[in-house]
Design brief:
By secondary structure, this protein is of the alpha/beta class. The protein is built from 3 helices and 5 strands; from the N terminus they run E-H-E-H-E-H-E-E. A 5-stranded mixed sheet has the order 1-4-5-3-2, with helices on one face.
């Protein structure tokens, strides 16, 4: 996974067609619990853009993706907001 610096970089990866999950204002474990539920409901190959404000997501989201085999394509932090672009892999 490479790091990027701007929101427009994530959009260039095709995130404009991604489903959005806004977990802003929620704290551990809620963002990952919502992510787990949302990933279960989408099709393999679908992109999901997660926005969170809890710094623990910088640890939890990569571990979630690694453990379940989903692709964490990019992640950025800007002004206290964390954005992740995840592709669901067939389970």
């Amino acid at each position: 996974m490479s790091n990027i610096n701007t929101e427009s970089d994530i959009d260039e990866l095709g995130a404009d067609g991604a489903l959005l999950l806004d977990a802003s204002g929620l704290f551990c474990p809620e963002p990952v619990m919502l992510l787990h539920n949302k990933v279960r409901d989408i099709e393999s190959g679908q992109l999901l853009k997660l926005i969170a404000t809890d710094p623990s997501t910088t640890r939890d989201v990569p571990k979630f993706c690694h453990f379940l085999g989903h692709e964490l394509l990019e992640s950025i932090e800007k002004d206290g907001s964390f954005t992740y672009l995840i592709r669901k892999v067939e389970t």
